[in-house]
Structure formats: structure tokens, C-alpha cells
């Protein structure tokens, strides 16, 4: 990296691991590298699930020490994490216990209980957010009901990226993209909805001022500045929700695209200027979350590579340890398999045997069951591609513009075989990459805050110019894929959606 080019530090923290990535960008060249990685695990204590935020803070501190040892002059720091979870902070700045984790079972069935106060349709009409048990709205409702002491004594509620930036700087903000996942914001006014807050029994004053990506939170505390030797480095509120950071890094040339953030779990959506809240979006369980520049990420969750990862783990126990490259070759070798499954079917959420669950599904739907490992791979990959097509068709029907291509970002963008299969099934070009979209989006929001990019389109042109991407175009007879897709909809009972 050049000595004088600004260096931006991104903390990209997920539910199972976190990492620190530095990016150098001087306006002409962009280079990134990972400098620190660490595990992130849920703590189970007396029947409750928590995030060990002190461990995460210590890992952030270690990454800062790495920067100091390497002599990196950090221009700014940004943090992105998962959504919905938060910590409680007292008036004097004390952190009131560990943040509850979204996997804590205390929210099981919570939405239905809340809908006795405000109907489901009304909640969706206000927020445009899909209903999930662990949304902040339902966490708060359950916490109040159980008399959760940290909430009772809190002066501020800080969502996870804001909580971590608070630990680094001592300043409290509420970043918009992460707050938008809470199901507490009105999708139109983009402010906390007073009726929803009143229904759960909390005051709007519990949340600090809403800020947009690119806002300066503050600077490293005196203690961290002195201990690390980095000095008073600026901390910037980036797109704090990790998917918002990833979408910021989609290398699109114009608005007429859909994106697929592909990994173990996947998200497919479009970027709009206004929320889409209709009967159809409600019925299909689409969600409207905040993006950079005040945009809306209109998207839907899709099961991703989870099925194949569980199959691989099963085969590994039996002594068949397939590499990632071998799996993609197996998809080609498995050609001719005609069995498909609905990857979002609840039976695939966490079965004792994924291959057994696939066989059961095929038997239930009157299909021939996969027999070889290659046929299982082909079944899963084709089912994923058809699932993407199903969601894309809904997006096309609701989007305020034509969708001319699909951008695949995240780790799944490296799966060339699935990328080509997806292009064949959807009948549109697929543009794959970057695989490190979340960290890149984080860094480029910082670069824009530093005046190195005019807007999100300039950021995206930087990525297109400097990061390797690959395009896939539809192949094969269109009639074959249309018939296959119609058969998939039939066997998965989706033909009437």
C-alpha cells in the first residue's frame, strides 16, 4: 500500500465471526486486505442468550494494535454488524449487562402476542418490515413483559454497531440502516413510530439521534488513542447493517438491477427511492430496509447454501470430504436429475440428516429421489436457481423500473456453476462479485465521507473499475428452462402464489 494514500479500517462483524479489513484508496487505486479475524459466539447463561460485547471490544482493540504495529495511518474507522439486537446503556455511560442475542428463545411466538395490541397488517403498513420473531419490536415487548432490569434502567438503547462505536468513542448515535431492521421505524417518515413504541411501553427518547451513513460519530477515546498509538482516529457511522454495506458495494451502472447477497443465507432485492408497501408485498413477506443515501432495500430472505453445507458435513462424517471446487463439478456431473425441493421449507431448517430431509420431500411430492452425491448437489443447486427466479418474478411485478440484470455479491458469487445455472433459469445476465462486498461497502462509505467519492454511483464505479467481476449470460434453450421452472413450481406448490 502507498504511504500517503488514506487507509480506511472496516470492522465487519457477523453472528459467528468478525474481521478487520483495511482499504487504501487514493482516487485511482483500491486495495484491501484482512488484518485480523476472530470468532463471535453466543453465550448461553441461565437459559438466556447473550452477545459477549466485551470480547468483541477486545478484538477491535487488538485490530487497532495490529494497525499500530504495522505503522498504518488510519484515516477513519467504520463498523457494520447484523441487525435488530441492541444494548442498554445507563445515564452515566455504564453498559447495563450483555446484549440479548436474536436467537434467544424468549421471542418465540412473540409477534402473535403483539398483534393482539396492533394487527399484523397495521404493523406492516407502518413499517414495511417482514415479521420475524426476533425483530427489535418483539424483543422489547417481551423484555417489558418480563421486567427486564437493564431495559428498566436504560437511558439509551444502542443497536450493535452503535454500541461498539460508543465503546470506541464514548458518543451515542442511532445509525439509520441498522435501526430500519428493528420494525420500529415508520417506513415513510423514517422516524420511530410513536404508536408502536407506546404499544411496547418504551419512550422514543431511549434512542439517540438518527444519523445517516457517512456521519462522524466521534474519535477514539483518549485511552484507546494513547494505548494503541494511533491517535484520535475518526469513527464514522457507515451503513451499520451488514447487508446495507454489501448492497452499497454492488457494482451497478444504473438503477435497473436486482441483487442477490449470496451465502449460507441469501437476500434478493432491489434498491428504490421509496418503500413498496402493498398487498402483494405483504402476502409475499417482502421487507423494506434502509440503504445508503436514504434509499430503500426492498428484499426477501432466501435460504442459500445452507442445504449444500449441511450435505457436505454429512458426507464428511462418512469419509467423503468434497472441496468447494469438487462440489461445483458435481453439479455438472449430476445432470439429468429431475428432483427439486423448496429450500425455504421448514423441514430443511435444521434436520438431523439433510440428505434424508431431501429424500423425504421428494417422496412426499412424488418425485424420483436423488441417489448419488452428485444428484443431491444438482437437486440443491437447481432448486436454489428456481427459488431465485421465483423471487425475481415477484420483484419484477413490484419494481418501479425494469430489471435488466442480477448482481450476485458475497461469498456465493464465487460459485461459477451456480452463477451460470442462475443466468440460464432467470433468462438475464448475472454479474458476479465482489465476494467481499460488505467490507468494501463499509470502507467506501468512509472514503466518500472523506471526499473521495461524490455519491453511491461513483463508489460503485470504483468497485467496477478496481475489483474483479465476472459476467454470465443465459445459455441453452429458453423453452427447456421455462418448462423446468413450471415443473418446479408445481412440485413445490408455488404455482398459485
Overview features:
disulfide bond, FGGY_N, nucleotide-binding, 497 residues, 39% helix, 19 helices, seven-stranded mixed sheet
Provide an overview of this structure.
The chain is of the alpha/beta class and 497 residues long. Helix content is 39%, strand content 19%. Strands 15-16-14-13-17-18-19 form a seven-stranded mixed β-sheet, with helices on both faces. A hairpin with a 3-residue loop joins strand 1 (7-13) and strand 2 (17-25). It is globular and about 65 Å long.
Spatial extent as radius of gyration: 23 Å
Taking the sheet with the most strands, its summary is: 7 strands, mixed
Q: Helix content range of the residues, please?
A: 25-40%
Work out the helix count. 19
General shape: globular
Q: Low-confidence segments, ≥5 residues, pLDDT <50?
A: none
Query: Using DSSP, what is the number of strands?
Result: 19
Q: Largest beta sheet: what is the strand line-up?
A: 15-16-14-13-17-18-19
GO cellular component, one term: cytosol
Family: Belongs to the FGGY kinase family.
Pfam families: FGGY_C, FGGY_N
Keywords: ATP-binding, Disulfide bond, Kinase, Nucleotide-binding, Rhamnose metabolism, Transferase
Give a short synopsis of this structure.
With 497 residues, this protein is an alpha/beta fold. The protein is 39% helix and 19% strand.
Chain-wise SSE layout:
Layout lengths: L6 E7 L3 E9 L4 E10 L2 E4 L2 E4 L1 H17 L4 E7 L5 E4 L20 H5 L5 H8 L8 H11 L2 H4 L3 E4 H10 L4 E2 H4 L14 H7 L9 E2 L3 E5 L2 H7 L5 E4 L4 H7 L9 E4 L3 E8 L6 H5 L3 E4 L5 E8 L2 H12 L6 H10 L20 H11 L8 H26 L7 E4 L6 H11 L3 E3 L4 H13 L6 H11 L3 E3 L5 H14 L6
Helix pairs in contact: 4-8, 10-17, 12-15, 13-15, 15-16
